Amino acid sequence: MSSFPHVRVEGPALDRGRQYGSQAAGRVQRSVAAYRDVFAHYTGWDWAAVRREAARFEEPIAAFRPAYLDEIRGIAEGAGLDPRDVLAINVRTEVMFAAKARQAAGRPRAPDGCTAFAVVPAPGAGGSTLIGQNWDWLPHASETVVVLEARQDGGPDFVTVVEAGLLAKTGMNSSGLGLVTNAMVTDADTGEPGIPYHVALRAILDCETVSDALAALQSGERSSAANYLIAHRDGSAVNVEAAPGDFGRLYLLFPEDGVALHSNHFLSPRFGGKDVSVWVMPDSPLRLQRIRAGLGGLECPPTLDTFRALLADHAGYPSGLCCHPDPRVDPYDQGATVASVLMDLGTRRMYLADGNPCSAPYRQLDYREFLAKPSPVAEHAR
After folding, report:
1. pLDDT tens-place string over residues 335-377
2. Looking at the structure, do residues 149 and 171 belong to the same domain, yes or no?
3. Looking at residue 43, what is its pLDDT?
4. Are residues 67 and 140 in the same domain?
5. pLDDT of residue 100 exceeding 60
6. Measured in Å, how far apart are the chain's first and last C-alpha atoms?
7. 46 and 142 fall within a common domain
8. Do residues 363 and 372 touch, judged by C-beta distance below 8 A?
């Protein structure tokens, strides 16, 4: 497999969007074409119906972060598409898993399984904060992923590994924040308009601190369930298990013995809804058990090399930590590890496997210079 292309953008939101869409035009167009088929499979809707459903999210996005709509419009202009085409793929989670869509298609969520980790040093102990994940999704995404490197006029610069045309996924920023994520599903995932999942991910990458990221997630009604594992190079980290709704539907989990792990189901004993995640992704608890077992008995804190080995594990094949398409199921229901991302927030280095980590070697991406923008918060702390 060839390396994912890098897209480098700068300036205000509309300009960044145009640059993004222009540089990744073929991949953005491929994303839209692929989701035409995927949405039809999962919802039974034609593209006009998908656009109408996506348009319902314009108002909550505008109320939350209006500049993101400018960026979406710019992506569409750069890629030669209608803005609602790009909006539709940015609300893919909400469109695919709306209650009406599930009733029409008679099927659950697509296989959006991921396994994530963070390692934080004890106060005063030294060492770097580490964070990463295997990102499992539909196999077509291997043809659409880009490494988006964004310099912003306002807010932190950031790097994200993301499907072309989407605002953000896994990544880190110049303020020292790192983000990985896991899709989840509850009985409250009805597709009602709110802050979409991928918009929330982008908002986190625009934050200076972990508490800022919590404030962003609390600042409006979220449309979809998800887990956001957020860490900072200062050693702070939190798993935010989010059900659809407002700030009262966030459940926080913290590292144990310096390590946080998460897959695709709720772990908080405070969660009071109906977690449908394991019904949809029955491998989720097994992947979590496997990565926990791999860390058991270590005499020293785990390193990125530890996770390189663990994330290539095939227990439970084909749907283990390193996920491969299952030939026993419909192609639209198959999943695969699209990318594996490891980040050292202290050294500002990312290690990216462009595909399954069992076969794709990790390449080092050094962002010491790119993510060197001073953080006003960090500068004041000194």
Report:
1. 999 999 999 999 999 999 999 999 999 999 999 999 998 877 6
2. yes
3. 84
4. no
5. no
6. 45
7. no
8. no
User: How far apart, in whole angstroms, are the C-alpha atoms of residue 74 and residue 23?
Assistant: 12
Whole-angstrom distance, CA of residue 184 vs CA of residue 246: 16
Please state the rounded mean pLDDT for residues 118-135: 93
DSSP string, 177-205: EEEEEEE--BTT----SSB-HHHHHHHHH
Candidates 332, 339, 330; CA nearest to 311 is 339
Do 309 and 236 share a structural domain? Answer: yes
Q: Rounded to an integer, what distance in angstroms lies between the CA atom of residue 98 and that of residue 191?
A: 4
For 140-165, write each residue's pLDDT tens digit. Answer: 999 999 999 999 998 999 999 999 99
Q: Are 206 and 300 within one domain?
A: yes
User: For 4-53, where are the E strands, in sequence order?
Assistant: 6-11
106 CB contacts (<8 Å, ≥6 apart)?
none
Residue of 302, 243, 245, 238 lying closest to 275 (CA atoms): 243
Structure-block tokens of residue 96:
């695919």
Residue 82 pLDDT > 60: yes
Q: Does residue 212 sit in the same domain as residue 338? A: yes
CB 224 within 8 A of CB 198: no
Tokens of 187: 């009985």
Q: Is residue 123 part of a domain?
A: yes
Q: E strands along the chain, which residues?
A: 6-11, 114-119, 130-137, 145-152, 158-163, 170-173, 177-183, 226-232, 237-242, 250-253, 259-262, 336-344, 349-353, 362-366
Q: Residue 298, Cβ neighbours under 10 Å: how many?
A: 12
CATH assignment of the domain containing 203: 3.60.60.10
In a domain, 1, yes or no: no
Q: Which of 59, 83, 105 is the last residue of a domain?
A: 105
202/68 Cα distance (integer angstroms): 9
Q: At what angle do helices 83-90 and 66-79 cross, to 10 degrees?
A: 120
Domain of 328 in residue numbering reads as 114-381
